[in-house]
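Hello,

Our lab assistant flagged a job as stuck in the queue for most of the afternoon. It eventually completed. Since we weren't sure the result was trustworthy after the delay, we are filing this so someone can double-check. Below is the sequence as submitted and the structure that was eventually returned. Let us know if re-running is recommended.
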Amino acid sequence: MIFAEYIARDLAVPLEVFRHHGRQDWVAEGDVMVANLGRTMKLGPEPHYMCWWQIHSIARMDEWEAHFRTPEGRLYAAESPVPRAMRFPRAGLYDAVLGSGKVAPGLHLVEFFDSDAHEPAVLAEAFGRRAAAAPEARLAYVLRRLPLIGPDPGGLALWSFDSYAAAEPFLRRPRGGPVSVTAAGLYRNFGDDIP
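-- returned structure --
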């Protein structure tokens, strides 16, 4: 399961401070940051920043809440500079239909698609077909939100490319099939993005 944080920069916070703390300081056994992305060159819609955490199951939410009610958790919440340097306006819970592990550095296209209308097998088959037809692209993840527990349209697909020029054929290719991609944005790993 993926817990995705949608992040915004508070313009009152200097960019250097945001960049430093945007790498995030959360460390806990079993929580793996698989993607920390910043929209680059203003190419795409909001969110400007996303951080995806692989968690073992939705039970992790119970564990996090219990932790933040302990003295140690309250101290972390009071002293960590991260929530003061960044805004977290939304989060979502997703099943990974395809993909695992950390996203490698590079240029990434995040596609936003309607996932609620499709079963995971349909999504896996549709994106698998597209990946097979696009040798210039590497499909890293396809995420399907738990219904309504994440922003519309509900699905996220992350493709990686060697460069903008390498991505161009993919960007120009028609998006046929059962999945409706409603928006897309270009991202880089956090800190490598150009705001």
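-- support follow-up --
The delay was a queue issue, not a problem with the job. The result is valid. The first helix runs from residue 15 to 21. The CA atoms of residues 109 and 185 lie 6 Å apart.
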